[in-house]
Write a structure and sequence with these properties.
single chain; alpha/beta; five-stranded mixed sheet; two-stranded antiparallel sheet; about 35% helix
Amino acid sequence: MDDTFSYNLDSSEGFLRVTLRGVARHADVITVLDAITEDGTFLHPRRLWDIRDCDLDLTYDELTDLGEGAKPRNIPDSRGAILASKDVTFGVSRIHSVFRESENMSVMVFRDEDEAVSWLTS
């Protein structure tokens, strides 16, 4: 896998698909969060984070920071699905989901894209 970080945003499916590639570090994820935020609020209440082609290079403290830092950006009744195929990325995403969960945000981690989309859009 190419280590160069890149991301793509696509809202053509009725939700925001955020696709990350390469090695994502804390500053990279902050850049993406800022790109999908306007006036301090997320642009879309349903977001699918596709990180199947991404390796997360984040410490525990950075995971905590990302989860806590994203909470104020929530739109009521938001959902975030994380699509991860690698065991390590799946595990890190599960840890992140604990920090990300709030009364107006539900987060689930999936390996199967159809299941993720179904949950996200239900």
